[in-house]
Design brief:
This protein is α+β, with helices and mostly antiparallel strands. The chain is 48% helix and 16% strand. The chain has helices spanning 8-38, 43-54, 65-79, 83-101, 112-115, 135-142, 204-221, and strands at residues 108-110, 124-129, 148-155, 161-171, 174-181. The protein is globular and about 70 Å long. The mean pLDDT is 87.
Length: 222
């Protein structure tokens, strides 16, 4: 009969794969904890800090952003099930008012407030669309909203990427993060840093529908 036993090097390879998978899981959960408790919003920063804390330094063990996001949802479900939904709802309601304020710029809600992982440290992230990059700071100045200028590198699609103006300001006791994009980007969202697919985004009407769903779910849970 043929020998069905695997050669020793195969066992070693499987053992190495298992160890790598376990390290990835540990890193994903540690990165999620750092994001939830430490207010880190950047996946890359969170995974590098987690690797440093756990003493894991091989690149193969670094989790994908999607793995960290899944671990973050699980962390919030287990440890922040009472406070996190309240903070999320507060930000979604503020986002709806912000979308109305910026309505001339075809605004869209993006980021953690939309995907449901926003907590007390999260900013309300919006994309505005206008070919005049100075139009948004003029609008903010006209309405007496002091804002800090930044820039953000985004991939618009597989072939186009660049740095785009960002305006940071506070309103209603919350932080807002507004990226200004060319008007034609409204047709297709920039690519997400989580999975390299077009970002999920929501118009005011879509956010209203989401808030209504949240409210119905809240009644059912209670």
């Amino acid at each position: 009969m043929p020998n069905s036993r695997q050669p020793p090097d195969s066992h070693a390879h499987m053992h190495a794969q298992t160890r790598t998978r376990e390290r990835r899981q540990r890193l994903a959960h540690e990165a999620a904890r750092l994001m939830a408790e430490g207010g880190i919003r950047d996946y890359h920063q969170a995974k590098l800090k987690a690797a440093q804390r756990l003493g894991i330094h091989d690149d193969a063990s670094l989790p994908r952003n999607r793995e960290i996001e899944d671990a973050l949802r699980e962390y919030q479900r287990l440890f922040a099930s009472s406070g996190q939904p309240v903070e999320l709802r507060r930000r979604r309601e503020a986002a709806l008012r912000a979308l109305d304020f910026f309505r001339q710029f075809d605004p869209r809600l993006v980021g953690t407030v939309l995907d449901g992982t926003a907590d007390a440290n999260a900013a309300v992230a919006l994309h505005l669309h206008d070919d005049d990059a100075d139009a948004v700071p003029r609008w903010l100045e006209e309405h007496g909203v002091p804002a800090e200028a930044r820039s953000r590198h985004l991939r618009l699609d597989r072939d186009r990427e660049g740095d785009f103006p960002v305006w940071l300001f506070s309103a209603e006791g919350l932080s807002f993060d507004v990226t200004v994009l060319p008007a034609d980007v409204l047709r297709q969202a920039p690519l997400s840093s989580v999975d390299a697919k077009p970002m999920r985004r929501a118009s005011a009407s879509q956010l209203q529908a989401l808030l209504a769903e949240d409210e119905i779910a809240g009644y059912e849970d209670s």
